[in-house]
Amino acid sequence: MRKGTDGMPGREPRSGFYRSQGLRLHFNVWGDEANPPVLLIHGGRDHARNWDDVAAALLPEFAVYAVDLRGHGDSDHARGSQYSVPDFVVDIAAFAEMLGRDPLPVVGHSLGGGIALQYTGVFPERVTRVCAIEGLGPGIGSRRPASHRMREYVRQVRGFEQRRPRHYLDLEDAVQRMREANPHLTDAMAQHLTEHGARRHEDGSFTWKFDNYVRLRSPYEFNSEDAREIWNQIRCPVLLIRGSESHAKDPEQDGKASAFHQYRSVLIRGAGHWVHHDQLQPFLDELLPFLRCA
Q1: Across the strands, what pairs with 264?
Q2: CA distance linking residue 243 with residue 262, whole number of Å
Q3: Are 279 and 287 in contact (CB under 8 A)?
Q4: At what angle do helices 111-122 and 85-99 cross, to 10 degrees?
Q5: How far apart are the C-alpha atoms of 225 and 3, rounded to whole Å?
Q6: Radius of gyration (C-alpha) of the chain in whole angstroms
Q7: For 134-148, how does the pLDDT look when each residue is reduced to its tens digit (9 = 90+)?
Q8: Angle at CA of residue 120, ends 116 and 125, nearest 5°
Q9: Burial classification of residue 38, based on how many CB atoms lie within 10 Å of its CB (0-12 exposed, 13-18 middle, 19 or more buried)
């Protein structure tokens, strides 16, 4: 593992890189690596440093690893639009093999929660417990004909080829956009997420680090049967967390939770989609006991 030397022990992480499918992918490490490990996976259009406050709470007991998914943060962008969940799962498998600390607990938010559950279901022997924060995917609705989905996907890809990243005049302009995306954020958190999620250009403007292609949705949609079969392979404890002010459905009411053998479903009051930002302490009150039981 290659580590950087920038940053103070504790809150500031060390940096490292690994390779998967020809891409150079970035990760951060907090704390003493002699401690038990925990892996954190961020959501779409986010980055590893969104976990700073969570890592600060975990590092007295754990070595905390957080990846920048392909096309996010300081990781390489994929050519074209290779941002499917299977690609992300391959990357996580490559990271775990490089790390060599199996089995370990995994925590993921949104897209990262979906990746965490897929990875755990495919490699149940490599995970001790898994926490998914709003990571169960979209609700089950009527499926559009495949030909319609493929036509729309081609149209979207062709349109993305003409798009250019939006430039913000300065950092504060970008911070304002971050606040608009999540009104629950404190000013300090909005500033932090923007500083680590945006790239400054020579003219002083800023763009987001994530690849615009990560916005594309697969034409194959969410396959509930395949997801349930994969989730059903998970034998370790599962913690499902969602916010009361989010779009996420109750997994016990929509039937998704029934795919798991050992699970606990928790609703965090006063939180939106970014539960670990919106209600940090109530989130940690659920996560820390869950991880300590490993």
Answers
A1: 239
A2: 21
A3: no
A4: 70
A5: 41
A6: 19
A7: 999 876 555 789 899
A8: 145
A9: buried
The residue ranges of every structural domain in the chain are: 14-163+220-292
- Give CA–CA dist 186/132, Å, rounded: 23
Tokens standing for 44? 């779409």
Q: What angle do CA 51, 56, 57 make, to 5 degrees?
A: 105
Q: What is the pTM of this model?
A: 0.94
Find where tokens 């009051």 sit: 269
Longest dimension (CA), the chain: 54
Helix (H/G/I), strand (E/B), else coil: 71? coil
Helices (H), 100-216: 111-122, 146-160, 171-181, 187-197
Verify cis geometry, omega within 30 degrees of 0, for the bond prior to 103.
yes
| CA proximity to 140, closest of 241, 259, 234 | 259
36 touches 30 (CB < 8 A): no
Q: Which is it for strands 104-109 and 14-20: parallel, antiparallel or unpaired? A: unpaired
**Using CA of residue 153, residue 157, residue 163, residue 166, what is the dihedral sign?**
positive
CA 227 to chain CA centroid, Å, is 18
DSSP code of 168?
B
SS3 173: helix
List pLDDT tens digits, range 177-222.
Answer: 999 999 999 999 999 999 999 999 999 999 999 999 999 888 886 7
Q: Which residues of the chain have pLDDT under 50?
A: 1-10
Quote the CA–CA distance of 260 and 227 in Å, as a whole number: 11
Helices (H), the chain: 52-58, 85-99, 111-122, 146-160, 171-181, 187-197, 224-231, 275-278, 280-292
CATH of domain 14-163+220-292: 3.40.50.1820
Distance CA 224, CA 201 (A): 42
- Report whether 28 contacts 58 (CB < 8 A): no
